[in-house]
Amino acid sequence: MKETITNKLNAFRVLYVEDEAGIRENISEILEHYFKETYTAVNAQDAYLKYVQNKPDLIITDIQMGEETGLDLIRKIRKSDSKTRIIITSAYTDLDYMLQATELYLIKYIVKPITHDKLMTALEAFIKSYDDNKIYALTEKWLFDFSKSIISNNEEEFDLTKKEALFLKQLITKNRIITYEEMESLIWDEDSVMTPNAMRLFIKNFRKKLPEKSLKNIQGTGYRLIRE
User: Fold this and answer.
1) pLDDT, tens digit, for every residue of 34-64?
2) CA 152 → CA 52, 74, 133, 182, distances in Å?
3) Which of 76, 112, 147, 157 sits CB 3.0–4.6 Å from 152 for a disulfide?
């Protein structure tokens, strides 16, 4: 897997649901290398409890698990949550199962046995689902959703103004110092002037919504983002 993808995975939490102990242990050991937090569950009931407690970003679940199936689990989650990404694993290639799964907005359907290549392909699809929605990892605990102009961590969400969202996207995608001249062109329109006071107020309010010490002023030049 590409290094950039592994770095991105480290910002997320995953819940892996599998009733076969051997498979669960093997796959969870792999997941622990990539994700910030890895939780495991042995059945749908256990999985739902851990989903509520830990709010994972990704759920990887088997379909057949006794009385409640993985599809039952997903339907229950989808009643109130359309954002959590979900990957299904199953020994079944039955068309009916696959059609039901498709209706539940899945990232991937992995046919068992789960090989390393299949798992990595699914995890790449998981990351791409965030990239397509313009979601960026600022640190291992902070995410920036450009499409919604929101910064979030495990505890809070911060709404960005249009100017703040545009500025942050520039800082992330260009990965360098954004000069004062660029800021004036990007943030201030033809009808406004970037006075020193206006700049100080903008930066002061912007910093309150970012991880601590992540926005660095390069004296006389501009600002750059520090992502650790």
Assistant:
1) 998 999 999 999 999 999 999 898 999 998 8
2) 18, 24, 15, 26
3) 157
Contact 217, 223 (CB under 8 A): yes
Residue 39 CA to residue 20 CA, distance in Å, equals: 15
The angle at the Cα of 215, spanning 211 to 219, to the nearest 5 degrees, equals 160
Spell out the domain ranges in the chain: 3-132, 143-225
For 163, the enclosing helix (H) or strand (E) is helix 162-174
Question: In sequence order, which residues have a C-beta less than 8 Å from that of residue 175 and are 6 or more positions away?
Answer: 225
In tens, the pLDDT along 70-87 reads 989 999 998 888 788 999
Q: Encode pLDDT of 180-195 as tens digits.
A: 888 888 777 666 677 8
CA angle 91/97/99 to nearest 5° reads: 135
CATH 1.10.10.10 assigned to domain 143-225? The reply is yes
Q: Which residues pair with 207 in a beta bridge?
A: none
Which of the four CATH numbers 3.50.30.70, 3.40.50.720, 3.40.50.2300, 3.40.50.1820 does domain 3-132 have?
A: 3.40.50.2300
- pLDDT, the chain, mean: 86
